[in-house]
Amino acid sequence: MKKISSLMKISVAPAALFACLGTSAWADTLADDVLVGTSGDGIIFIDPEEGIEEPGIRAVTFTQTRVSISEDEYEYVDPFETIITDFSDMDSRGDVTNCLMTNQVGVYCDSAGGSGKRIKTYLTGRNPFDIRLRTVTDSGYPSVDYFTFGKTSNFTGARLTGFSLELLDSNGNPMSDTAAAEAVLFNLDATDLGIGARLPDGLFGGGGQEGEIGFLSDGRAALAVTTTDDTLNFGALTNADYNAYFGSAFLDNSMVPDGLFWDDNDDPTDESALVAWNNLAGGGWTYGTLDTAENLDARLQEVADALGVEVADLDYVAGGLMPDAIIEVAEANGLFEVDYIEDLRNANLNFSITVGDIETGEFTLRISPTFAPVVEQTVTPYQFATAGYLDGAANVPYLDIGGAAAYQAAIADIVALDPAAANALLETTGFSFLSGFTGIGLEFGKTVVGSIGQASSEVSNDGIALSTKGTPESWEIGDDTHAFVSLGGSTATYGTTTNGIGYDVDSWNAVFGAEKRFNGKSSIGLVAGYSNATAEAALSRGSVDGSGMFIAAVGRTTFGKGGAAQAMLGYQDLSFDTTRNVMGAVATGSTNGSQVFAVLEGEYMFTQGGFRFGPTGSVEYYDLSVDGFDETGAGAWNLSVGDQSGQVTILSAGFSGEYKLAAAQPTKLTGALTYNSASGDDQLVQTGFIGLPSGSTPVDGMNMDWVSLYLGISSQIGGSAGKETMLNAGYVGSFGSDYDSHALQLSLSMRF
Questions:
Q1: β-strand partners of 506
Q2: Domain spanning 431-751 has what CATH number?
């Protein structure tokens, strides 16, 4: 192994500073395990399959692996020590010995280009992303420079009009507040190494996977930058071709176009070559620049051979449309694949930092995104996602399939309002009451569960036996078989949540059932019926109408001296119709769905004279799926809504009781008081204007608590000789801060 120590370089300013101070303090270096932690809206990407190991970032100090063997040739050897502390006059990244880079074994600061040195950060929301870094003391030098190989990707859900990199001390204060010798600052003199951010080479400018060409432009696409010692502010992209296709902002992942990629070397493990991209506003699949002028004919021949066509059939012109026949052939060819062009949401970051004597041994690199005004003024995640999507549809040229002018006018109207009114109007451009589907499903499921009542035990001379519960929806179980019919109606109010407007659900149901008892202590039954409901969104936002049939199996049993339990498993086949009021238009939609539900209930009753009382509890589970659908009727404002899938679990515990009246006909009063807690999954539903890429709409899960009161009466109204008919009626009320409901149920049961 070679090991040399090169001439120490010390920048003039730090040396003079230390001389004036008369101090023997030396600068820190970055620790090998440099990452302390991260916080905020972002992640450092880790992918062991690509060789990127946890934590995705590392520091390399005073290490060289590249040595010159001639004027233009280099070889790579085992790492050896080379001490360089000042990069101000360095003109090649191949000479860098100190760097922040991705955590990839065997890769160093001066490794060959394309070896995967860049730290990959994903920005995932509106808030800054902080990377806390560790230093170690006493390098023996007054300052040490590090070059950063960075890459950031936009997964925020909105275009970035810019972003900033800030250097902060361990308390979050700007490093410019600290003396330079005790700070970490950007080295703004290391210009030849690069200070800036730009899209990866190959799409714009030669380099990268595309080699000597720029697929979309021969010029690079850099973000404008202004600098201070502790802040780099990045702004608009200024490449004219980029502006023509994508505007001036940095695209979100959801906004990048699809590309047609060709596995040009029959090796699926490496990156494929880009042949065309789907320019929605420009008519569809569009060729990019495939090679240099001198190599183009040979490249076109290779493409034609791979597709099994003639070169003339390609009708190739850079920036021209790909013929439909070629598109069909490519889609059927295993060497061609459609995928999104991810590098349009990536920006390579290049900058150097100078590390001084850091007293706390820690500092922060903060990445802060900035957005368009309509996005910046939002408060909730739903508003942010909706504004980000609308801003993209309005201002990304390749997405303009006829609606951009309407979207731009709407944005102008929105930002002219005060923030509260602006965000209320903004919310209407998306589907702000998607949780109404879940609300309808939950009310339907609760109806079925409630319609059969709860298993109850009764003590007689023959011992414990199943008995009529007598709640509003109960049925009586006789010696053999009985049937019942039940009609009911309810109204429920679901409160506004962080990401959804509130709504009222009015529903009615018809239930039919039959049950067979075994040995007086257990039974099995089958119920079926129909439910119908409407969820009306607050502020006249729109509605969801739902209806459907259901079927469920029920089993009941007794235990101990006063216990009873029952279980139910059911399925509902549902259909939905929607209306949504948006910008003076009405969008309508229709779709189908289904729900699986399961319930386990139990009680244990004690007898005191004519009273029976005891604890009761239940677990309910609902799993609703709704198919995606497209709206009509509102022009550019019509949405395509993706599939929805969510689960709700309800836990209940309380106290129930019943009292038999001394009357000529058997009559029973029943009641219960329970505490209920619902928990449900949050969802990210894909929604977007029809014809455009979709974005993610957050939908809050059903997370709420309430108290329920059950009051009921059941009475025999006729029959004899074991053929009684029972009438059951009652009320169920639920009361909570986010949910309340009121239901009436009337049922008729017969034993025969």
A1: 491, 534
A2: 2.40.128.130
Beta carbons of 86 and 143 less than 8 angstroms apart: yes
Query: Which structure tokens are listed for 455?
Result: 């298993």
User: What ranges in 212-279 are assigned the alpha helix state H?
Assistant: 240-246
Distances (CA, A) of 372 to 41, 73, 153, 158: 18, 47, 18, 9
Cis check: omega of the bond before 419, within 30 degrees of 0 = no
Which H, E and C letters describe 404-473, residue by residue? HHHHHHHHHHHHCCCHHHHHHHHHHCCCCCCHHHHHHHHHHHHHHHHHCCCCEEEEECCEEEEECCCCCC
**Residue 130 pLDDT exceeds 80:** yes
Q: Which residues make Cβ contacts (< 8 Å) with residue 130, sequence separation at least 6?
A: 38, 39, 40, 168, 364, 365, 366
Query: How far apart, in whole angstroms, are the C-alpha atoms of residue 148 and residue 170?
Result: 20
- For residue 498, give both structure tokens: 């962080």
> What is the four-CA torsion angle of 304, 309, 315, 319, rounded to 10 degrees?
-40
pLDDT above 50: residue 477: no
Per domain, the residue ranges of the chain are 22-251+342-371, 257-340, 377-427, 431-751
Digit-coded pLDDT (tens) for 697-723: 999 999 999 999 999 888 887 655 556
Q: How far apart are CA 320 and CA 244, in angstroms?
A: 15
574: its two tokens: 């549902």
Query: What integer is the mean pLDDT of 69-98?
Result: 95
Q: At 327, is the secondary structure helix, strand, or coil?
A: helix
**Distance separating alpha carbons of residues 743 and 473, to the nearest angstrom:** 10
Residue 487 contacts residue 747 (beta carbons within 8 Å): yes
Cα 278–chain centre separation: 25
Q: What kind and span of H or E run contains 715?
A: strand 704-718
What are the tokens at 538?
Answer: 């607050």
Exposed e or buried b per residue across 433-453, where buried means at least 16 C-beta atoms within 10 angstroms of its C-beta: bbbbbbbbbbbbbbbbbbbbb
DSSP sequence for 3-48: ---PPP---HHHHHHHHHHT------EEEEEEEEEEEESEEE--BG
Q: Beta strand pairing status for 481-494 and 463-467?
A: unpaired
Residues 6+ positions from 293 with CB-CB distance below 8 Å: none
Q: Is 265 helix (H, G, I), strand (E, B) or coil?
A: coil
Q: Give, to the nearest 10 degrees, the angle between helix 324-332 and helix 296-307.
A: 60
Q: Do the Cβ atoms of 652 and 736 come closer than 8 Å?
A: no
Closest by CA to 111, choosing from 63, 146, 52, is 63
Alpha-carbon distance 384 to 158, whole Å?
Answer: 8
Q: Which amino acid is at 472?
A: P
Lowest mean pLDDT among 12-26, 424-438, 517-531, 697-711: 12-26
